[in-house]
Amino acid sequence: MPAAVPLPRPPRSARRGSGGITLNDVARLAGVSAITVSRALNTPDLVSVETLAKVRDAVARTGYVPNLLAGGLASNRSRLVAALIPTIAGSVFLETVQALTDTLAAAGCQLMLGQSGYDGAREEALVDAIIGRRPDGIVLTGLLRSAAARRRLLASRIPVVETWDLTPTPIDMLVGFSHEKVGARAAEHLHAQGYRSPAIVTADDHRAGLRRAGFEARMRELGVKKVPVCVVAAPSTLGNGRAGLRQLLAGRGKVDAVFCSSDVLAHGVITEALAQGLAVPRELGVMGFGDLGFSAHIHPSLSTAQVDGAAIGAQAARFILDRVEGRDPGPRVRDIGFAIVAREST
User: Fold this and answer.
1) pTM
2) HEC letters along the chain
3) CB within 10 Å: which end of the chain, N or C, has fewer?
């Protein structure tokens, strides 16, 4: 039996977290050159099966992790894409994140998430931090409203995809839909069902505000001059939905339908309505946004606006991959639209 080869020890001068095991350490343990180790890790088809086995064994024994930054400097690719979402608690974004992850992974890239909250200053700070790390691309949820951050992104020349919103003048590329049109179509649906005293329960984020504006504008066109509104803090919770309906019912005006800025809020409104003995939809119609997994299965099932989040994520990933691989991504703005899903709650 051959004598055991001791594992190399990180040099004392190595900084904590800097990666003490190096490519040369792996090469010494495998009995090959550093160039051969690099070739085995990056183009394994170009080395023999025996050499590849030696290198992989050495990597496993040392716990070596390749320095992707160094490789990126050589290839001008980081194989890392950064995405900013308002909150990881927002299930409406999960399909987008999953599709981004899957599409990028199939191309050998990884997704890094940043949580911006619903805070413009925090989003701007995250954008600066991400630009400094030079990812292959950046995916933003919604439109970036900071003019300064917009200028920095343009100057960086990093491919940028804005998502979950719509504008003819994106920073670079965009895939989304019109929130104002969602609100308008929701108003049309409730009005067609005979509701004439609608109200709104909405979170205080920008995109929810656009849906509210679209709803109110279309209701005015349909002859409804006043729409009571209850604004709650983002991200939405079921409890906020219940509290929102209580506030609306405590007001002086009649309410016979509620449009909510999310399915989570709408679930809370339905829960509170039933707790107060209101029949849904006969006495109160309820409509949400997002068509989350539970929406078709609660009682009564929830009418809502459905958005294909997976299509948004997949297209955003393809935009970035096309750009960094030198392909023409085609039209820079893609409107994926939405669908009104009528269920029992209206």
Assistant:
1) 0.79
2) CCCCCCCCCCCCCCCCCCCCCCHHHHHHHHCCCHHHHHHHHHCHHHCCHHHHHHHHHHHHHHCCCCCHHHHHHHHCCCCEEEEEECCCCCHHHHHHHHHHHHHHHHCCCEEEEEECCCCHHHHHHHHHHHHHCCCCEEEEEECCCCHHHHHHHHHHCCCEEEECCCCCCCCCEEEECCHHHHHHHHHHHHHHCCCCCEEEEEECCHHHHHHHHHHHHHHHHCCCCCCCEEEECCCCCHHHHHHHHHHHHHCCCCCCEEEECCHHHHHHHHHHHHHCCCCCCCCCEEECCCCCCCCCCCCCCCEEEECCHHHHHHHHHHHHHHHHCCCCCCCCEEECCCEEECCCCC
3) N
